[in-house]
C-alpha cells in the first residue's frame, strides 16, 4: 500500500500550483488604477524582471559548477549517487521559480492594492492577502511536487521489493535515497542565499542613492516617482523582500521536510524506516489540505 502512496504525493503539489494559478489570474483581473499608477508600476515590474534575469544568469553558472562537483564526489561514495546533482539542480530551479512566482504576484498586487485602498480597506486587504497566498502556495506546491517526484523516482530505483527482505540492504538503500534527495534541499539553500542577500544589497544601495542624490543634491522630495533611484528602491524591495524571501521560505520548507525524513529514518528501526518517511509526507499533505480548505 505504501508504494502507491509515493506516486500520489506529487499530485498534492500540482493541486497547489493550480490553486496558485487561479489566484494569480484573479489578481490580474482587478483594477490597476489610473494611467499614472499603471505606468509607475510598470517601471517597477520591468526593473524587477531585469534584475532577476541578470542575477539568475550568474547563479546558473554557479549551480552548474556545483552540480558537476557533487556528481563527481558522489560517485566515490557507496551511500550516494551522481543523481544527487540532478536533485541539486532541480532544487535550485524550484527555489528560483518560487521567488519568481511570488515577485510576479507582488508586482501585480501592489498597484491594485493601492488603488483598492482608495475605495475601502477591506478590498485592499483582500488583494494583498491573495498576493501573499500566491507566494505561499507556490512555495508549498513546488516543494511537494519536487520532493515527491524525486522520492517516487529514487524509491523505484533502489527500494525494490527484494530489498525489504534484507535489513542490511534496506538500510543501505534507504540511506542512499535520503542522501540523494538531500541534494534538493542543498540546491534550494544555495539560491536562497544569493537571492536574499543580493536583493538586499541592491535595495539598500538604491535607497541611499535616492536619499543622497534625490533629496540632497537635486532637491526632489522623498519617494518621488521622478527620481530614478526611487524606482530602483522599489525594484529592490521586490527582488529582495519578495523574490528573495520566496526562495528563503522555499529553502526552509524543503529543509524541514528533508530534516524530518532524516530523523525518521535514523531513530526508527530499519524495518520501519521507510514507513516513517511516508508518515512524514502524509502529515505534511494533510496539513496542506487543511490550509487549502481555510483559504
State the order of secondary-structure elements, H for helix, E for strand.
Answer: HHHHHHH
Mean pLDDT: 82
Stretches where pLDDT is under 50 for at least 5 consecutive residues are: none
Amount of beta strand: under 5%
Q: Helix tally? A: 7
* Total beta strands: 0
Shape descriptor reads elongated
Mind summarizing the main beta sheet?
none
Rounded to an integer in angstroms, the radius of gyration calculated over CA atoms is: 22 Å
The number of domains: 1
- Give the helix/strand class: mainly alpha
What gap, in angstroms, lies between the N and C termini?
A: 31 Å
Helix content: over 70%
Could you walk me through the main structural features you see in this protein, from its secondary elements to its overall organization?
With 295 residues, the protein is mostly helical. 85% of the residues lie in helices and 0% in strands. It contains seven helices and no strands. The chain is elongated, with a radius of gyration of 22 Å. The model has no long low-confidence stretch (mean pLDDT 82).
Topology:
Blueprint (H helix, E strand, L loop, with lengths): L1 H27 L6 H40 L9 H34 L3 H38 L8 H51 L10 H40 L5 H22 L1
In short:
It is built from seven helices and no strands. It is mostly helical. It starts with a helix and ends with a helix.
Amino acid at each position: 500500500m505504501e508504494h502507491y502512496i509515493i506516486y500520489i504525493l506529487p499530485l498534492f503539489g500540482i493541486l497547489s500550483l493550480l490553486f496558485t494559478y487561479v489566484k494569480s489570474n484573479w489578481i490580474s483581473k482587478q483594477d490597476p488604477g489610473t494611467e499614472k499608477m499603471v505606468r509607475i508600476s510598470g517601471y517597477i515590474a520591468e526593473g524587477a524582471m531585469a534584475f532577476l534575469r541578470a542575477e539568475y544568469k550568474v547563479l546558473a553558472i554557479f549551480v552548474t559548477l556545483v552540480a558537476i562537483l557533487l556528481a563527481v564526489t558522489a560517485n566515490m561514495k557507496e551511500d550516494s549517487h551522481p543523481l544527487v546533482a540532478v536533485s541539486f539542480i532541480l532544487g535550485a530551479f524550484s527555489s528560483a521559480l518560487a521567488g519568481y512566482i511570488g515577485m510576479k504576484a507582488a508586482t501585480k498586487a501592489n498597484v491594485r492594492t493601492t488603488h483598492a485602498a482608495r475605495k475601502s480597506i477591506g478590498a485592499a486587504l483582500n488583494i494583498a492577502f491573495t498576493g501573499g497566498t500566491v507566494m505561499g502556495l507556490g512555495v508549498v506546491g513546488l516543494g511537494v511536487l519536487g520532493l515527491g517526484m524525486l522520492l517516487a523516482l529514487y524509491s523505484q530505483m533502489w527500494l525494490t521489493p527484494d530489498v525489504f527482505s534484507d535489513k542490511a540492504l534496506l538500510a543501505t538503500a534507504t540511506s542512499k535515497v535520503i542522501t540523494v534527495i538531500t541534494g534538493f534541499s542543498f540546491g534550494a539553500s544555495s539560491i536562497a542565499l544569493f537571492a536574499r542577500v543580493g536583493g538586499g544589497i541592491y535595495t539598500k544601495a538604491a535607497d541611499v542613492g535616492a536619499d543622497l542624490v534625490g533629496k540632497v543634491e537635486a532637491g526632489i522630495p522623498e519617494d518621488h516617482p521622478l527620481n530614478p533611484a526611487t524606482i530602483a528602491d522599489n525594484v529592490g524591495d521586490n527582488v529582495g523582500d519578495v523574490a528573495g524571501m520566496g526562495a528563503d521560505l522555499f529553502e526552509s520548507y524543503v529543509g524541514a521536510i528533508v530534516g524530518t525524513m532524516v530523523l525518521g529514518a535514523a531513530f526508527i528501526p530499519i524495518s520501519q524506516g521507510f514507513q516513517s518517511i511516508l508518515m512524514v509526507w502524509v502529515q505534511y499533505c494533510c496539513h496542506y489540505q487543511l490550509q487549502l480548505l481555510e483559504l
